[in-house]
Specification:
By secondary structure, this protein is an alpha+beta fold. The protein is 31% helix and 31% strand. The protein has helices at 8-36, 45-62; strands spanning 65-71, 74-80, 91-97, 111-112, 117-120, 126-135, 141-150.
Amino acid sequence: MAQREITGRHVLIGFVAAFGVIISVNLFLAYSAVNTFPGLEVSNSYVASQEFDARRDAQEALEWSVDASHHDGVLTLAITGASGAPVEVAQLDAVLGRATHVRDDVSPDFTFNGTAYLAPVDLAPGNWNIRMEAVAPDGTAFQQRVVLQKK
């Protein structure tokens, strides 16, 4: 049986193929990261940092707790006060979406039933985030990101 020799051409083809795969994968991952980035959280981070402590203190003074669940096509967002009683807010805006991209983002139409906020939403299994903004009856702004695991 004749032995095959490895020539410079074979080595060059091996290096070009290996680095071609590495570069292709890196370009694909960079493209995916840029296209799935949802955007800026705030337009001016310096101004947001100056107001952060006051907003946090006002929000914590409300002593609200937020819990989310999804059963039988209904998304439930329960906001409770320090006493455990349900809280009816003056205004509620929320965006439901995946943590990794904005393609599946929806704004549920919540209605208050006396104990919690309900919205009809069909969800696929996985990790979901609810980015909610509420206004208390006294005008205090409340923002929270609630993680929802749909099985």
